Amino acid sequence: MGAALQVTAFGLALLSTLFLLLATCTDCWMVNADDSLEVSHKCRGLWRECVTNMQDGVRTCDQYDSILADHPVKIVVTRTLMITADLLAGLALATLILGLDCITFLKEDPCVKLKMCYGAGVMLGAGSILGLIGSMWYAVDVYVERAMLVSHNIFLGVHYDFGWSCWLGLAGSTGCFVASVLLTCCLY
């Protein structure tokens, strides 16, 4: 039962870590939510803003200035939280691989392997919380920005909604949290 639980947690942690990495690297955290008459599809991300022409499929992207340049707080905070979550999830994944019962590393000392699995669960939990905070921070800020424009009857021509990268970040963080619970609570 313990080995099956470890492998299940490993599979979930691997998939969730990939989701977190993809969410951090992709550029569709916000998408335009206008009517279907739009001739272009706009995406804003943590690193750049892209526009895709719907008629010919040409995509152009504008990189944000510099990492050290002045950016909105939601971008800076989300970048920081997501990168930290990626690093913690990656480190937890490496630790979990070494702690699995099916790996021959430290086979003679099962207590150390169990502690490695527990430590990986703690790191996954910390990474999942940071990823959830980062994704939710960005999503709430998009919602508040849109609500403020609507409440003041301001129409700028483009309204943004949550993009698939934001949903991917939330899914990856949730998966890491479930894997953390499996490793820290259910393994013992």
From TrEMBL:
Q: What does this protein do?
A: Claudins function as major constituents of the tight junction complexes that regulate the permeability of epithelia.
**Organism source for this protein?**
Sylvia atricapilla (blackcap)
Could you tell me which PANTHER family the record lists for this protein? CLAUDIN (PTHR12002)
**Family of this protein:** Belongs to the claudin family.
Subcellular location per the Swiss-Prot or TrEMBL entry: Cell junction, Tight junction; Cell membrane
Q: What is this protein called?
A: Claudin
What keywords does the record list, in alphabetical order? Answer: Cell junction, Cell membrane, Membrane, Signal, Tight junction, Transmembrane, Transmembrane helix
GO CC term, one of those recorded: bicellular tight junction
Task: Kindly give the membrane topology term recorded for this protein.
Answer: Multi-pass membrane protein
Q: Name one GO molecular function term.
A: structural molecule activity
**Annotated signal peptide:** 1-28
